[in-house]
Amino acid sequence: MAEATEQADQITEPATESATEQGDSRRAQMLEAAAELIAERGLARTRIADVAARVGISPALVVYYFQTKEALLIAALRESETGFYASAEDLLRARRSLRDRVETLVELTFTEESKGEVQGQWGLWFDLWNEAFRHPEVAADRRALDEQWRGLIARIVRAGIEDGEVPADLDVETFAMTWAALLDGLSVQVALHDPVVTRARAEAIALDFARRELGLA
Question: Where residue 162 sits, what CATH number does that domain have?
């Protein structure tokens, strides 16, 4: 009897793993499709049925995984941001000085699509801000994403302080908050193709501010 039970476990275990892997793959496909559609059309014009059709599944399965369009938007943006931060971490590890790391962050910020991000990434952020204004649960996710961005900036600055590149009395949190807001604001103008705020000009403004505030000029 024990031998039969062991054999049954050996048979069923691979099937369970396969089902899990299939579910993860299907979820990733839905997130990719949702990100592309929302970036193309906006959240208001994207239906659950559109996401399902692009993946080739039933709308009920999308609802099973994400319940609402808002939840799908947040999950898609988180997935894209995961790709952005993975790319950023790889690049930052390869840079030794704070000056080089600051320049890398600026380059990543104003690159139209960084490695791992979906096309039209800023379209997802525009919809997230719009939904966050009206829905507290979306606002909480927006705060978490912004805190992650400011945290990355603060971390590289603290490393610069430890290496003696930046004065120890620098207010790291205030710098991170201010520079993140400047980068985000300039990025919006670049994403909207403002004729005055070109990518080159935005990069120069962001770099000048950081170098001046950090004493790297």
Answer: 1.10.357.10
